[in-house]
Every structure is written in structure tokens, then in C-alpha cells.
Design a protein that fits this description.
Strand content: 15-25%
Structural class: alpha/beta
Radius of gyration: 21 Å
Largest sheet: 8 strands, mixed
CATH class: Alpha Beta
Number of helices: 12
Length: 323
């Protein structure tokens, strides 16, 4: 069996505040195989972004602990900041949500792409320019040579996101972490950007973690998926298995909340209740107050992660049975 390129076991990230300890991520485990796209999905506040920022030492003021946090043969948890700076961008790159805030409005596109090449490569000026033109061509920017002189405000939202992707790919990283990469874009541009990303991943033998709240995007884009809720991984497995036969009531609720245009629905389904506050979590299962299958044990005990067939994992005392 192939060893994962990235492996995380029992990752927890906490913040100490005046309201108490915030458990942003609690005992989350996942892995990423080479050439694979892994989806991490959940509502806002589920901990999916914090979990991935923790890998790259980008969590400010938080305490990060893990049994295993390994990229290839590198123990990420033991790296000093200087060592992590060399790895970020060169080996693992991150695409953030908002393309406008990710780009510096005072510098040209060319300057911002070149920064990464200067930091992580030994290319000379002529070679860097050739690489930048090639990157812009790959992400679908027309007339790339002249567009290097443009500023971010001269691009549309979709084009700015393509620039962010070009910067992320600049030094040929093995892993891309894409955090809600299409949130600020309209539906047509979303589809174009996602298609671009998946093509680049598959054609160039990279791996990607796609963070999103959109199960529709997950079903079309990812190979495997982790469903998170209130800092915990509730269910994980091969995407088509999880989408077509959800076993956790939370996953089932998310899927039922998606509008179905072929069905005559007078009212859209929504999961009752609210996500608990991170500083005031339920004693037992975190989904218990909103769960239609909850029993007394769910209120008092936290369900262990159960390994099912075909790589499926689920944290639930009363999973939905197949068939």
C-alpha cells in the first residue's frame, strides 16, 4: 500500500481567551495520497481552515498538538520557523479565499510572482521572467508578457484568483491547499477556476486539499472527503461512497439541505439548531443537540471513530445503516 504524502493523526488546536479555552480542532486525523484531491467540508466554524493552517505553522496565538503531522519524511511539528519558511511555497502552497486581500495592491503581478521565485529558486532574472510568462499562460491569462506589468485592481475577481493560483504553482509544490478558492466568484467563473485547478493537479501529478462548505463542489472535484463539525471529523471516506450513502446524521443533513431541482419542494430542508460555540461544547457528541438519531449515550459520551469497510471512518454511536 502506498504511503501517504501527508499524514495527520490526532491534531488539536486550542486558543486561550477571556471566555475560556476554544477547541477549534479536536483530535482530527486525515491523510493525502500522491496525485489525490482530498475535500474537507463543513459549515463555517467547523475548524477545517484552522486544521490546515496548523500544518503550516500559520496559526497565531494557538496551541497546536498532534501525534503525527508528517509531510513525506518530514515531521512538520518539529520544524523551526526558518525551516518552515523554506517548505511553505516550495513544497506545500496555500490558496486563500479572497484574491484581493491576498495580493498587494501596491505591486505589479510580475513583482508578486517573482518574489516566490527569488525566495525558493536559483533562477536568474531572464529565467524567472520566462517562468512567470509560462505560469500566466497555464492559468489562462491572455497576453501574459504585458500583463506582468499590471496591478491587481486591473483584473477581475476570476483573473485575480488565477494569479493566486499561478503564485501557488510558481515553485512546483507537491501539495496545494485551496481554502474556499471560489467563494468570492460567480457561478460560471467558479466552474472555470475549479476546472483549471483540477486539470493542473492531475496533469502535473500534484496533490490538493480542497477546503469548502459546498458538497456539490466536493462531489464533482474530490477523490476522498472529510466531513467536519465543531472541530471534529464526523465522517470520511471515498467521496462517491460518502455522497451516495452517508452514514453520519450530520453528513446526511448536509446532503438533504442541497436544493434538488427535479423534486417539487415547498420548503428547503435545514438542520435544526445552531453550531455550538467553540468555548461551550456539548459534553458528549458535538452534533447531539441537533441530531435526529440522538440517544442518552450521545449526550454523555463522545463517540469513538469507527473504521468501516472501504476506508470509511465515522464518529457516531448510531450510524445510518446502508440499504
Amino acid at each position: 500500500m502506498q504511503r501517504p504524502i501527508l499524514e495527520v493523526k490526532n491534531l488539536s488546536t486550542t486558543f486561550h481567551t477571556f471566555r475560556g479555552v476554544i477547541h477549534a480542532v479536536s483530535g482530527v486525523s486525515f491523510h493525502l495520497n500522491e496525485g489525490e484531491i482530498l475535500g474537507i467540508v463543513g459549515e463555517s466554524g467547523s475548524g477545517k481552515t484552522v486544521a490546515n493552517l496548523s500544518l503550516l505553522h500559520l496559526v497565531e496565538g494557538g496551541v497546536v498538538q498532534a501525534d503525527v503531522m508528517r509531510y513525506q519524511d518530514i515531521d512538520l511539528s518539529s520544524l523551526k520557523e526558518k525551516e518552515m519558511e523554506k517548505l511553505r511555497g516550495a513544497e506545500i502552497s496555500m490558496i486563500f479565499q479572497d484574491p484581493m486581500s491576498s495580493l498587494n495592491p501596491l505591486y505589479t503581478i510580475g513583482h508578486q510572482i517573482e518574489e516566490s521565485l527569488k525566495l525558493h529558486t536559483k533562477l536568474n532574472r531572464k529565467e524567472r521572467r520566462a517562468r512567470m510568462i509560462d505560469l500566466l499562460s497555464k492559468v489562462g491569462i491572455s497576453d501574459p508578457e504585458s500583463r506582468l506589468k499590471s496591478y491587481p485592481f486591473q483584473y477581475s475577481g476570476g483573473m485575480r484568483q488565477r494569479i493566486i493560483i499561478a503564485i501557488a504553482l510558481a515553485v512546483n509544490p507537491k501539495i496545494i491547499i485551496a481554502d474556499e478558492p471560489t467563494t468570492a466568484l460567480d457561478v460560471t467563473v467558479q466552474a472555470q477556476v475549479l476546472r483549471l485547478l483540477t486539470d493542473l493537479i492531475h496533469n502535473e501529478s500534484r496533490s490538493m486539499i480542497l477546503i469548502t462548505h459546498d458538497l456539490g463542489v466536493v462531489s464533482k472535484t474530490t477523490d476522498r472527503v472529510v466531513v467536519m463539525y465543531a472541530g471534529k471529523a464526523m465522517e470520511s471516506g471515498i467521496t462517491k461512497d460518502v455522497i451516495h450513502e452517508p452514514m453520519h446524521p450530520y453528513t446526511d443533513g448536509l446532503l438533504r439541505s442541497i436544493p434538488r431541482f427535479h423534486e417539487n419542494q415547498e420548503r428547503l430542508y435545514q438542520i435544526p439548531g445552531m453550531v455550538p460555540r467553540a468555548y461551550d461544547l456539548p459534553k458528549g457528541c458535538r452534533f447531539e443537540p441537533r441530531c435526529p438519531k440522538a440517544q442518552p449515550i450521545c449526550k454523555n459520551e463522545e463517540p469513538p471513530v469507527r473504521k468501516m469497510s472501504n476506508g470509511r471512518e465515522i464518529a457516531c454511536f448510531f450510524p445510518i445503516s446502508k440499504g
